[in-house]
Amino acid sequence: MKSFKLLTTGFLALSLAAASASAATLDTVKERGKLLCGSNGKTAGFSAPNAKGKMSGFDVDFCRAISAAIFNDPDKVEYIPLTSKQRLTALQSGEIDVLSRTTTWTMSRDSGMGLSFAATTIYDGQGFMVHKDLGVTSALELAGAAVCTRTGTTTELNMADFFNKNKMEYKPVVFEDRSEEKSAFFSGRCDVMTADRIAMAGIRANAPGNPDDYIILPEVISKEPLALAVRSNDSEWFSLVRWVAYALINAEEMGVTSDNLAKMLKSEDPAIQRLLGVNGNLGEKVGLKKDWAANAIGAVGNYSEIFERHVGPNSPLKIERGINALWNQGGILYAAPIR
Amino acid sequence: MKNVTHPSGAGAIPGSSFWNQPVYRSLIIQAITFALIAGTGYYLISNLVMNLNARNIPIGLDFLAQRAGFDIGDAAITYTAQDSYGRAFVVGIINTLKVSLISILLATVIGIVIGIARLSPNWLVKNLTRGYVEYMRNVPLLLQLFFWYALLTHALPSARQAFNPVPGVFLSNRGLFLPTLESDSGFYFLLFGLLAGLTAALIWRFRANTLQKGTGRQLPVFWPFIALLATGGLVGWLLSPQGITVDMPALKGFNFKGGIEITTEFFCLMIGLVTYTSAFIAENVRSGILAVNKGQQEAASSLGLSPVRSQRLVILPQALRVIIPPTTSQYMNVIKNSSLGVAIGYSDLVSVGGTTLNQTGQAVECISLIMLVYLCTSLATSLFMNWYNASVALTER
Amino acid sequence: MAIIHSEPLPSRPAPASNSGLTGWLKGNLFSSPFNTALTLICVYGLWQAMPGLVNWFFLDATWSIFGPEGNANEITKQTVAVCKEAGGACWSLISVKHRFMFFGFYPQDEQWRPLLTCFLLIGMVLISGIRAYWKPWLIVAWLAAIVVCFILMMGGVAGLTYVATSKWGGLPLTLGLAVFSVVFALPLGIALALGRRSQMNLIRTLCVSYIELVRAVPLISILFMASFLLPLFMPEELTINKLLRAQIGIIMFAAAYMAEVIRGGLQAIPKGQYEAADAMGLSYWQATFKVILPQALKVSIPPLVGTIIGTFKDSSLVVIIGLFDVLNTTRVAFSSDPPWSPFYLEAYFVGATVFFIFCFGMSQYSQWLENHLDTGHKN
Fold first, then answer.
1. What's the topology of domain C91-372?
2. What is the structure's pLDDT at C369?
3. pLDDT band at residue C166, thresholds of 50, 70 and 90?
4. How many CA atoms lie within 13 A of A197 on its CB side?
5. Where are the domains of chain C?
6. What distance in Å separates residue A4's CA from the closest CA in chain C?
């Protein structure tokens, strides 16, 4: 019995990760040697295993950027796959350090749950996808349709609001898991699928058969700023995550890319010098070395590179920049300056 | 519970040390256990309160009155997104009970048939049913549900090409649509007619039973019973002023309107539960029948009873006593297993509770509510089955 | 003339109509009009179903992979085209996806480790089935095997690279969940069963309430509790791994069922055994561990195997809280890769076969054991 007890204790000790959540997250991450990133793992374009079984996608690159800023190595990340139901609990309980999983920034999540949203990574909105053969051109023609969605999302609530507001009847079919939802939609169990439009473009791009058989309707029924979330009890960590994201956006604004990084390090522009840590040491303010942003940009590229790689017009998702363009190029992407 | 009989009972034993006195020792052990449990409980609860405070989550059931904001596809009572979380819970409970009850009934019927077939002298029947039972029992229900759901959504036609075997009946991957009766005056005439017919039929059965007990003469029961019921319905229909309106489902827009809708999710969960549980019930029935003394079968045959009648009148009533207790736990399993519907999009209690948990963050309350409901249903089922078991128990003289 | 045989006449052979093929057919398929009708119905049903099934399963099925080696996309494209052309089952799915189906996201180069883990666990289960080995050392061997499996999977020591639990998946996860559950639930179940029969009111009440509560609720609600509530009950600086939380949930669940089975065994022990143990002057623990439990466990083993099968099947429920057990990996193998998504039947067939082999094997074993252990206690 004694050896049994010993073993149990040993087993528990091995598996309990004592993460001091109230203490500095950054110290814990450094000590651990890797970043715990809450991800989806099943959404093409945002986070999904690539052909080599490695996680890749838009959401994944922000975790890689944070890892590069801390460790000067984008691969010191462990991706914890979470369902939409589990993601907030996982962050609250300290199971992950940062949540990068197409999570909408809302007031109730930001204020009432011990979470804080550090930075919006992409501005999305909820939409509808239908089969072309239905001949539907507007979401207002969807009265009586069967609608597939997932439980535990803002999508489920927006959908109810939209149909009720427009006095249309509908049949919700709500799934726990995205793969069941996709299977139900593509088999024709539902007429419509509703989700965030960019994520849905990924689903459409991977439709069995021809992606052109499905159309995404023009209506956008909600605002979905998808953002990085952290626990609200560590403001230093919050700043770090926020400013890594902002650095990538600022890099695009200044024209710094992963390719011209070496050249830009010799730039005369004081703003670029501040960003890349050539002049001054802003990284210190968030507990990092002064070349933090240069490392992040070198690893994943600037915002535009990330966008183009995973969701842009040349990717399978074929999403235009639209409102996600920089503020000075007709979009609303606006990062506070680094100085 | 009095199996372990240490020389306690009388209390303290003179001359032995304090620790060796069973009364004190038992008291001390219990006190330590209590302290441990209370301490752990206090520790956990204080953690909980601290965590909830840190996250600004209020404790209590107030959220049940708030507006739910989400819709439920398969609601048996009127429910919209404007209703409260409490009402959503009720919808979930009704859905759980609905699918469980229907599955229990069907699984019992199919289970009895297969259980008897397992003992058939016919080699083919015996082995085919054996294969069915072994396969169903040894593959997880969740996998079977995923399989059925994939099959039903992929193999059945879309709503526009629905199977239409009989007018008014449509089968598609949206579900099964059946005609129903409009609840106008004609419907009530029909209902009253049927009730009258049923009363007459019951009286006839009672008369036949008394006659048989008194004189031994048997009157036919089955066919007159059906005939009286049918006549009642027919008379009610003929008497109704406007006749009966049948609400036929028809394809309007995207979906079928009218009639009764049995959604794919419900249908799939039901098929899964019925096929899975019937295999277990069949095994109970088989072992129950095997437990009946062989002489009973021989005696029944020598009395000249047909195989069907000897099963119905002699074997099954005796086998029931062996069958009921394990079958009770199968019934409770059906109720518990219906929670797997959450994986295939059926809005049962766990699904609604899970959504509520996610929208409100009231994890403790939601999970406790879910567990409480299952606890009550399980208790109710076991009470009912115990009562039934007592009513078929051997009355010894 | 009297004919007197000094030897008994040899017995005559059974009439031709009762022996041989015709006799068997007559006895087993056509013994009465009712039976004949049943046989005809069954034969008709098989006649209708079998050709289609056999065609789909074997004749029209595709088994091999097509396309240039190393080019995953091209292989998928060509193989799927061949499968669709043939119209039957596409067993190529397994050839292409078997690594993911059996090992999930575990790094490809390290997959010998989960493979070894599976063999070790299956080997241990097989060894435990042999009665001659039911000795105390088996417990030690089990504990050792568990530690070895754990180290093999996790790595980080002895030159093995560290593999995070979030990458564990497939068959080793299913087997591991089931085995760990049984190994930890069994002692807990024994303790609960003994507690339920204790004379101490408090302990008895606690055990009864625990057992009845857990048995009344579905496993999903316990898994939800482990997944959502457990973190809330823990101090803020302590986080428990997601996999471990699910494992704790299954252990708690299985323990209650095992406790009931063992209680059945305890109740089957004649009162005389308790009295004899008391008369020998044995203490409660001596009596329990040397006299009562060995007998009670022996009686309980066949139903315990039933509970173990149940636990094995129930471990598939971790799909719902997002773990990648063998059911989830087979599901993801076809559903997350669009070209393969039409071949759901094949994938589920593989998953079902894996579960069936283990569960059917165990249930046959328990039947054999029941006959074997029957040493006359049943009167």
1. MetI-like fold (1.10.3720)
2. 84
3. confident
4. 25
5. 37-90, 91-372
6. 8
